Amino acid sequence: MLLVYDTKTRNVERFVHKLRGFRLQKIHEQLQVREPFILVTYTTGFGQVPETTRTFLQQNHRHIIGVAVSGNRVWGSHFGKSGDAISREYQVPLIHKFELAGTKKDVEIFQQGVYEIVKQSS
């Protein structure tokens, strides 16, 4: 399974490198994805989707099958809000919201969520 990620402070990058069994691809300007993928991104500002993530999705949204998002709980109701927006806009499951680089438990929850998505789509 392909996991595409966007990171600013490297928290998302640290999280995805804890995962096993995924091919990882960091978002960059020319990235074109032509297969199903899970997106892992972060929340910026007061709950906004990062511009790099938004630009990537404009070109590659056809193949997104799920999203997870990093955030910081100090933002209260804005915690991980970009995941809610992406899930709603592209009608894909929000797998998990995790804080900063996530914990072992966050990794387990994420991997179980991906397993459920893959199981439902087969």
Automatic annotation (TrEMBL):
Task: Report the GO molecular function annotations.
Answer: FMN binding
NCBIfam families assigned to the protein according to its UniProt record, in alphabetical order = nrdI (TIGR00333)
What the protein does? Probably involved in ribonucleotide reductase function.
The family this protein is said to belong to: Belongs to the NrdI family.
Q: What is this protein called?
A: Protein NrdI
Q: Which organism is it from?
A: Melghiribacillus thermohalophilus
